[in-house]
Amino acid sequence: MSEQLAKEAFENIAKNINISNLKADSLKIVVFNPINVTRKELVTAIVDFPKDSEIYDLMVMDADGNDVPSYLLEDMGIVWDYDLPEVGFRIPYHVRRFRIAFLASVPSMGYATYQVLPTEETISEIYKIDCMENEHLLVEILNDGRLNITDKNSGFCFRGLNQFQDSLDVGDEYNYRAPKEDEIVSPYASDTKIGPILSNNIYSECTIKTKLRLSEKPMDINYTLLLVKGSRRLYVHADVLNEHKDHRLRVLFPTDVNTDYVSADGQFDVVKRRITPWKGWKNPSNCQPQQAFVDVSDDEKGLTIANRGLPEYEVLRDGRNTIAITLLRAVKHLGDWGVFPTPEAQCQGLHTFEYAIIPHAGKLESSIADIDARAFNAPLTAIQIKNGGNKLAPRGIFIDLQPQKLVISSIKKAEDRDSLIVRFYNPYHNSMLGTLTSPMPVDNVYLCNLAEERLEKLECINGVVTLDVPPKKIITCEIVTKY
């Protein structure tokens, strides 16, 4: 439901964009950036041409007519679809549909318009290469599927990353519990098939197929590595068919970082925790919650693991400060207070996992690894538009917040008045001088509490508000526009 609401909101904005100066025979794609960071990143889009179109390849240009690196991912053929008007029955149609990828440059909390045109030239070339490498990372794939990743910025090589590990689990939906006689399994090189490293003009990728030799029958794991040109993160997409019960599947990332602390993204916070729990902690497992990412770092180097929907991690006390991300737990009971069977908690079937490996120089606070992790969690979104308007330029911003370390959590209409609420926070221990900019004509800006009650009027000069943001502080601003 949330995706559909977001799509409708994007379409409502896009129909006001002036596309009169763009090529008449091009399809128009609008790319939206939901975070306060200017980004040049990979985006995929669905584009629909008339069903009788004869198309050899596709090219992408920005609104000024400059060529944009792109790749035709898939010709989906003639597809039946429909529009659903606000009033009346659905309107069916047939189109020739394609899926494309390109490097979009989109401003902070803004949008950018692109043009897609057929071409007789060969744009979408793909070729084999010997290793995965870009401006920031060098990735070596080991025979058993693990990775050695060199961060060119720090010069440090993180070894043995992305090792899948399965173990038995006799716990419940709340807590993991290992049996007295555990079965811990990781892939063997003999069971791992590494596909060719394929590259085009915007990214390189490699698909790896492996298995875990569990007692009943093997568990197949297929995963794809993707490294985009200019990116500081290695994207991993893993598919796992779970036909086993009472077990836990994790993926391990040895950091070899000398530190006593781990940092994890949380609610309006980045939480710093000790890796070794206090002496009263009796459970040998020390799993902790996370939201967008977890990081282990020291003054020289660090490793951030970003995730989409994987809320549990543990830093192992194994001498290497290994980050363990829980992918799947299959258990039979709700809790430990008595028999309460939950057979669906065995999580049978196909599961897809997405995460990113982000090495960096120095501590998390001084790097941009956390910004990269938040960008991974809020990908660029592209939609095709048929008709535009005249209210908005082909490229623009709605709100800007600097510095980028400040995190926007909400931009919304006020609950009981016609104004805009912008909520953000400082997740770190140092104060920051924040600058909130609105391109819309501003009448007044107010500092509010979480209930959107006005506390004080803020000075606003030419749409810019500057204010001190204390450590661990949530800030709510109300922007009253002149229209």
Set out the fold topology.
Layout: H1 2-14, E1 27-32, E2 39-50, E3 57-62, E4 67-68, E5 70-83, E6 91-106, E7 110-119, E8 127-129, E9 132-133, E10 137-141, E11 147-151, E12 157-161, E13 163-168, E14 193-194, E15 197-199, E16 203-212, E17 219-228, E18 234-242, E19 247-253, E20 261-266, E21 269-274, E22 288-289, E23 293-297, E24 301-307, E25 312-315, E26 323-330, E27 349-361, H2 369-377, E28 381-385, E29 395-397, E30 400-402, E31 407-413, E32 420-425, E33 432-437, E34 442-448, E35 454-458, E36 464-469, E37 474-481
Antiparallel strand pairs: 1-7, 1-28, 2-6, 3-4, 3-7, 5-6, 7-29, 8-15, 9-10, 10-11, 11-12, 13-19, 14-16, 15-16, 16-17, 17-18, 18-27, 19-26, 20-21, 20-23, 22-25, 23-24, 24-27, 25-26, 30-33, 31-32, 32-37, 33-36, 34-35, 34-37
Could you describe the largest sheet, including whether it forms a barrel? 11 strands, antiparallel
CATH topology of the largest domain: the name is Beta-galactosidase, Chain A, domain 5
Uncertain parts = none
Q: Domain count, please report it.
A: 3
What is the mean pLDDT? 94
Helix content: under 10%
Query: Number of helical runs?
Result: 2
Shape, principal axes of CA atoms: globular
